Amino acid sequence: MNTPPVKRIAIYGSTGSIGTQALEVIAAHPDLFSVEVLTCNGNDELLVEQALKFCPNIVVITDDSKYMKVKDALAATDTKVFAGAAALEEVAAMDVYDLMLAAIVGYAGLKPTLAAIRAGKAIALANKETLVVAGDIVMQAALEHRVPVIPVDSEHSAIFQCLVGEARNPIEKVILTASGGPFLGRKTNYLVNVKREHALQHPNWNMGAKISVDSATLMNKGLEMIEAKWLFNLKPEQIQVLIHPQSVVHSMVQFEDGSIKAQMGLPDMKLPIQYALAFPNRVRNAFPRCDFRKFNTLNFDEPDYRTFRNLTLAIDALKKGGNLPCVLNAANEIAVWAFLKNKLGFLEMTDVIEETMQKVPFIERPNIEEYYASDGEARHLAADLIKL
Ligand code: NAD
Ligand code: MG
């Protein structure tokens, strides 16, 4: 039997929750994957530790004040060290890897991912904000450069897995499941007092700070609706969200004959990460298995749109399109940052996003420069509203 060639991986955001789990997956399969590029924002110590273990060709640290520290620590190795945001894009275009795992958080992931697509690299996409901000341009570029964009987000991985073998069959609708986050069932009078520590405690998933807050406000599900629209070419009315607190059904696809496929498993991001890295193959692993006898019931409910208004705002942006999802995302990033710094209340995040969406001029078909400008404008407006 022919053994497949080793896939050369670049992990953008290697020190984060997704990045570190991806390295665990890769460490378990050295016959399938090699690590060629690692990048992070500022966690130089973990980056160096990872580089010493995985011997990548290149590391990039965005915070250039840390450059010398990383350079010195890796002086005895063959790893090349780059620093600064521009280096993320330069390295993304280099012929040193085959697939980028896009696991930077937020808008910062957009430019490197676009650079990778334009260089013809396959993308395993965790960074949903890339599609929220400029999904039309990113997916068009992927089409032009014949680049596969394989979702890592568990819901989208589920939908993707349900669609394997269904290329000729149109989707009637997708059902995106949501755990509901740590405040499921809570009302405004409770949420008004919520602080950073509560919001960071997610019942089913252990994730980075930003996405944990987004899960608590349900903004995450709104961003995922927009992500689904671009990944699977859907109309807004084809995307339904259901609260499913057990997080066993990761999402579902309903076809034109009414048949529904679901992808299921325990909530463990290593599975969708491994699937995206190894696609189209499934790879044996030792992850815990799902035992349905431990789940007496699986519940599915309508989200509480009145309490979790971020989801309503995101649906508004999804329906209106143009630069509105980009503005929503930028305002949300600023609001979440301020909330994490205890400078903004939990419910006030929604007010900031709503007001920013009203104030930034609407552009129906933005080009990439206009997306960048809308992002900047929304950030400034949101920061002014919070008086940062
Ligand atoms: P995280 O905060 O744990 O890690 C983020 C990574 O990005 C770190 O390596 C950090 O150094 C890097 N980074 C942050 N800001 C940067 C900047 N300005 N420039 C360059 N690098 C920067 O985040 P995470 O939870 O791993 O999430 C990463 C992405 O994956 C997000 O878009 C998130 O929505 C998505 N995602 C995460 C999960 C999860 O379980 N964590 C699940 C689904 C999707
Ligand atoms: Mg998700």
UniProtKB/TrEMBL annotation:
Broad EC category: oxidoreductase
Residues that hold 1-deoxy-D-xylulose 5-phosphate according to the record: K128, S154, E155, S179, H202, S215, N220, K221, E224
Pfam families: DXP_redisom_C (PF08436), DXP_reductoisom (PF02670), DXPR_C (PF13288)
Every 1-deoxy-D-xylulose 5-phosphate reductoisomerase C-terminal domain range: 149-232
Residue ranges annotated for the 1-deoxy-D-xylulose 5-phosphate reductoisomerase N-terminal domain, each copy included: 9-135
Keywords assigned by UniProt, alphabetized: Isoprene biosynthesis, Magnesium, Manganese, Metal-binding, NADP, Oxidoreductase
Residues annotated as domain DXP reductoisomerase C-terminal: 264-380
Family matches, as InterPro entries: DXP_reductoisomerase, DXP_reductoisomerase_C, DXP_reductoisomerase_N, DXPR_C, DXPR_C_sf, NAD(P)-bd_dom_sf
Swiss-Prot/TrEMBL catalytic activity: 2-C-methyl-D-erythritol 4-phosphate + NADP(+) = 1-deoxy-D-xylulose 5-phosphate + NADPH + H(+)
Protein residues bound to Mn(2+): D153, E155, E224
Cofactor requirements of the protein: Mg(2+); Mn(2+)
Catalytic activity, EC: 1.1.1.267
Function: Catalyzes the NADPH-dependent rearrangement and reduction of 1-deoxy-D-xylulose-5-phosphate (DXP) to 2-C-methyl-D-erythritol 4-phosphate (MEP).
Protein's name according to its UniProt entry: 1-deoxy-D-xylulose 5-phosphate reductoisomerase
Organism per entry: Flaviaesturariibacter amylovorans
Gene name per UniProt: dxr
